[in-house]
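Archive entry: two folds, one per protein. Generate the first.
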Amino acid sequence: MNIRALIVGGGIGGLAAALACTRAGARIELFERFAELTEVGAGIQLGPNVVKILYEWGLSDAVSR
């Protein structure tokens, strides 16, 4: 596959898109306006379908933490 993708935003959506595209064989460039990623203080809720996908991506340890 010779697909290239440009992803703007390093939040949870951008990072998930980057991971999914990379696993599908695409070459990605991810752009984030902040110099470093930090916690903002907002919580997120992940539904069962999302958690299943994260586990399939090999992120079960990270999700558990």
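Generate the second and append.
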Amino acid sequence: MQRIVIVHADPRTAAHWAAALSQEGYPVATAASFDDGKALLAGTLPALLIASVRLGAYNGLHLVIRGRLDYPHMAAILVSERSDPALEAEAGKYGAA
């Protein structure tokens, strides 16, 4: 079953988004780190990845790039606390909003 994967370092934010999406009937799984998100992607069929830009030594774009290798049709959204035109352009190259 396809699901939405949320990877965010703030567990409260991830839980809030997961609750809202679950209430709308979407199956959701969450992770709080790059490594946990990578493992979660490997064990699921993601329809959508929502990832925070800030994930420790890596960032959400790295997770999108890795996820696209296994799931080229996966939709992706990167979330950042501030606008970063360079990151937005880089994310666009990988089909992420």
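Annotation attached to the second fold: The mean pLDDT is 89. Residues 11-23 form the longest helix (13 residues).
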